[in-house]
Amino acid sequence: MAKESSQTVWAAIAANLVIAVAKLTAALVSGSSAMFSEAIHSVVDTGNEVLLLIGLRRSELPPDDEHPFGHGKELYFWSLLVAVLLFGIGGGVSVYEGIHRLHDPRPTGDVTWNYVVLGIATIAEGASWFIAARALVGGKRRSLLRSLHTSKDPSVFMVFGEDSAALAGLLIAFVGVLLGQLLESHVPDAVASLLVGLVLCATAAYLAIEIRDLLVGESAEPEVIAAISDVVGGSELALLSRPLTMHFGPERIVVVLEVALAQRSEPAVQVIEQIDALKARIRERVPAVRRVYVSLSLDSR
User: Fold this and answer.
1) 258-274 burial string, b = 16+ CB within 10 Å, else e?
2) Residue 294 pLDDT
3) What pLDDT does 172 receive?
4) pLDDT value, residue 8
5) pTM, rounded to two decimals
6) How far apart are CA 119 and CA 232, in angstroms?
7) Cα–Cα distances in Å, from 168 out to 45, 78, 226?
8) Which residues in the chain come in under a pLDDT of 50?
9) Can you give the pLDDT at residue 264?
């Protein structure tokens, strides 16, 4: 899973780096405000993916005395930083550029390169989006929106969100450049820059909300909880309440179980063996589970 996440981020970096250079060149040649905003967008996305890589590497550090549950949440922190930068730099600068060009228009040069770059960028961003979408769904039978909401891996859903915003921005930029050329007006191009900024801000706000839930402490998916309950149900112990779970990283789940003995007269050694066997079966059924804590009760309720 970590390898697939890293590959998704590297694919996005490669696409955004090439696109950023192309967009910036086209913006300088044509003087297009929308293309300049798109160039800023791609530069910010490239930097953001680098931060996600840092988060991935940091999250793989082993547990220590100060972090007994590991460093898995490092990825959540760096992802939140990415969302803030996407909102502040990507969205903020694009909105400012659009407003500035509305009040201080500049003559537009040859826009041919704009169309060429937009076409190339759409192909590259589309390829990156497809890779991120495939990693996001992960072979599960669910919609992209459902996968986006339930995913616990920011390195995947952040890239998917950024690529989706990028594709929307490319469409807006194309319409702005085209209308500006047809109407011989700077207004459509400036408005396009403003709209690109608003799309980035909205995307960043949504991603920040998703990451906030993970930072606060989000439970495992219902399918995972059902699998854990099923394992307990097939053991010699009785489950007294819904399993408590929390993600300390995309593939790091801590489980707390409240169980009761089937027979109160069982020897202590046998009870310990039953609990150890239960933990082993849970980890085998759900490999993402790293730790299982069992609270034993004599009250079967």
Assistant:
1) bbbbeeeeeeeeeeeeb
2) 92
3) 93
4) 78
5) 0.80
6) 54
7) 14, 25, 37
8) none
9) 63
Q: Which pLDDT value is given to residue 65?
A: 87
Q: Please, are residues 265 and 207 in contact by the beta-carbon 8 Å criterion?
A: no
In the structure encoding, which two tokens stand for residue 1, read together? 């899973």
**Whole-angstrom Cα distance, residue 149 to residue 218?**
12
| Sign of torsion over alpha carbons 143, 148, 149, 150 | positive
Q: How far lies 112's CA from each of 26, 29, 32, 119, 231, in Å?
A: 9, 10, 11, 11, 62
Beta carbons within 10 angstroms of residue 162's beta carbon: 31
**DSSP type of residue 288:** T
Amino acid 107: pLDDT: 64
Single out the residue of 184, 185, 287, 296 nearest to residue 237, CA to CA: 296
Give the CA distances from residue 276 to residues 12, 23, 48, 50, 176, in Å, rounded to whole numbers and listed in that order.
43, 58, 43, 41, 64
Strands 252-261 and 244-249: antiparallel
The pair of structure tokens assigned to 274 is 């039953």
Task: Give the Cα separation of 290 and 280 in Å (integer).
Answer: 10
Identify the burial level of 64 via C-beta atoms within 10 angstroms of its C-beta, where 0-12 means exposed, 13-18 middle and 19 or more buried: exposed
Instruction: Tell me how many helices (H) and strands (E) the chain has.
Output: 10, 4
What pLDDT is recorded for position 236?
82
Q: How many CA atoms lie within 13 A of 301 on its CB side?
A: 10
And the tokens for 155?
């390195």
Pick from 34, 41, 140: nearest CA to 92: 41
- The answer to whether the CB of 9 falls within 8 A of the CB of 153 is no
